[in-house]
Specification:
Layout lengths: L1 H9 L3 H19 L3 H21 L4 H7 L5 H31 L5 H24 L1
């Protein structure tokens, strides 16, 4: 099982395949909500992203890391740092939206719940990773 997971992480087709799969999910959800046009647009965006990953992977080291983040130690570190930066940006946006909603007298609970989820996920990961090392 562990070898299979390792091979899955090394596959250059995982991210493009996941993108197309998510596009199909978007299509199904939007179609079921009587928005087939929006679903087709969502699918087209996700397929275009997958095609761009495949087309530019040999020409761009950034795309290569996106397609295969565990290819080597450098790629893994770049992926980890980029993921951490994206997480910080999302957390900052969530905090800003909580304050924005509070300032205008709105309901900040959707953003507060996302912030709480992020905090719990961080603490859980920190606990597990600390125990493993």
């Amino acid at each position: 099982m562990q070898m299979r997971m390792r091979m899955m992480h090394r596959s250059k087709w995982l991210v493009p395949g996941f993108s197309v799969g998510m596009g199909l999910v978007f299509l199904a959800v939007q179609w079921s909500n009587d928005d087939p046009g929006g679903g087709l647009v969502s699918l087209a965006i996700m397929v275009a992203f997958a095609v761009a990953l495949v087309a530019f992977s040999g020409r761009s080291s950034v795309v290569e890391v996106m397609r295969n983040p565990q290819a080597d130690e450098r790629s893994a570190m770049l992926d980890l740092r980029a993921t951490a930066f994206a997480g910080v940006a999302i957390i900052a946006a969530i905090i800003a939206m909580v304050f924005y909603e509070l300032a205008r007298g709105g309901d900040p609970s959707p953003y507060a719940q996302l912030g709480a989820l992020g905090g719990v996920a961080y603490l859980g990961a920190l606990f597990v990773l600390q125990r493993r090392s």
